[in-house]
């Protein structure tokens, strides 16, 4: 890999694409050149990178000439159509969609956990699901010490995880309610303002949703722990940005709150905020636009043997997407 690689961002005008640009910039990623790619509808727009105005180009089969690293965040269909083209052109693809996550030949990476897996890539490296990444930032350090067997979790997911139209819908509904107007909806099947929807992604025959099963399936791959079990309920709440997860985890070895606190204080990429007497615990509002995730509400689980309860929050556009992708790119440079 070049010391100053040519980086392309696919889906550059989307929420995650914009965060990728900002993250490359503020982390001083040593890009020799930045190419911004999007659909024909967005081509011609300009986005700022440092002091340079870069024109967005239309994504085509010819877009990856001389590109070293391609950060994809334009959805699974685009990734499946163009990732192999980018690899054939000589780029390493870091993909933010679900297209390749469970492919046995594609590393699924959270750099604080399994950066070594990057070395086994064949041109494509996958970013995990946002709630999986945020949860594992707190769970994995505990697993390394005590060996997790299973978790029961409920997620509290921000509307920005659905996209820009969902943010607009929440804003519109709040305004309609305040003005005592009829509430309209188009993005979600029910009103999201002042509500909670236990429905994220498509329902499966099992009754779980696709989003809920990602925690178990992706967690097993990232932690190299095929026996890991996760029963998850994913909930969409009227928060603009940052996801939160309530976790009850059971471990093979006995665990105490003091030991867990000591381990989490030393873990990379996560802050311990756990002082209930002073009302100090992580909130999505406080974690928005922060690189680190935060964990708190540590307590012994009353229902599980060797169990620990905790609450973790993180910005799903950063550690759940853009930041994690850039960290993978940074790791590629060190290899």
Model description:
There is one protein chain. The chain has 335 residues and is of the alpha/beta class. It has 2 domains: 6-128 and 321-334, NAD(P)-binding Rossmann-like Domain (Rossmann fold, 3-Layer(aba) Sandwich); 132-316, Dihydrodipicolinate Reductase, domain 2 (2-Layer Sandwich), CATH 3.30.360.10. Helices cover 32% and strands 23% of the residues. It has a 6-stranded parallel β-sheet, with helices on both faces. It has a 6-stranded mixed β-sheet with strand order 10-9-11-14-13-12. Strands 3-4 form a two-stranded antiparallel sheet. Helix 1 packs across helix 9 (318-334) and helix 4 packs across helix 6. It is globular and about 60 Å long.
Report how far the terminal alpha carbons are from each other: 8 Å
Q: What fraction of residues sit in β-strands?
A: 15-25%
| Helix vs. strand class | alpha/beta
CATH architecture of the largest domain: 2-Layer Sandwich
The major β-sheet equals: 6 strands, parallel
User: How would you name the CATH homologous superfamily of the largest domain?
Assistant: Dihydrodipicolinate Reductase, domain 2
- CATH fold group of the largest domain: Dihydrodipicolinate Reductase, domain 2
Offer a concise description of the structure.
This protein is α/β, with parallel strands linked by helices. The chain has nine helices and 14 strands.
């Amino acid at each position: 890999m070049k010391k100053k690689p040519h980086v392309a961002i696919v889906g550059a005008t989307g929420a995650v694409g914009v965060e990728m640009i900002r993250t490359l910039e503020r982390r001083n990623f040593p890009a020799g050149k930045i190419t911004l790619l999007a659909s024909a509808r967005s081509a011609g727009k300009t986005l700022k990178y440092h002091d340079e105005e870069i024109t967005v180009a239309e994504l085509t089969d010819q877009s990856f000439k001389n590109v070293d690293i391609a950060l994809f965040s334009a959805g699974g269909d685009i990734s499946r159509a163009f990732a192999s083209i980018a690899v054939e052109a000589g780029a390493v693809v870091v993909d933010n969609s679900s297209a390749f996550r469970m492919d046995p030949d594609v590393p699924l990476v959270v750099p604080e956990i399994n950066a070594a897996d990057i070395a086994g890539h064949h041109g494509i490296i996958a970013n995990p699901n946002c709630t999986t990444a945020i949860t594992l930032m707190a769970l994995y350090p505990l697993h390394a010490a005590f060996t997790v067997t299973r978790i029961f979790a409920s997620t509290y997911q921000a509307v920005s995880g659905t996209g820009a139209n969902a943010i607009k819908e929440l804003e519109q509904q709040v305004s309609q309610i305040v003005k005592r107007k009829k509430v309209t909806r188009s993005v979600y099947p029910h009103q999201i303002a002042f509500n909670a929807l236990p429905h994220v992604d498509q329902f499966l025959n099992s009754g779980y949703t696709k989003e809920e099963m990602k925690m178990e399936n992706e967690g097993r791959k990232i932690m190299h722990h095929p026996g890991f079990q996760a029963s998850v309920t994913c909930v969409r709440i009227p928060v603009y940005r940052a996801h939160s997860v309530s976790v009850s985890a059971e471990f093979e070895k006995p665990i105490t709150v003091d030991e867990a606190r000591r381990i989490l204080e030393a873990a990379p990429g996560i802050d311990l905020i756990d002082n209930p007497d002073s009302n100090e615990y992580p909130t999505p509002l406080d974690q928005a636009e922060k690189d680190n995730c935060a964990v708190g509400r540590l307590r012994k689980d009353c229902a599980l043997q060797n169990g620990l309860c905790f609450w973790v929050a993180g910005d799903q556009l950063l550690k759940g997407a853009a930041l994690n992708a850039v960290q993978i790119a940074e790791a590629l440079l060190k290899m």
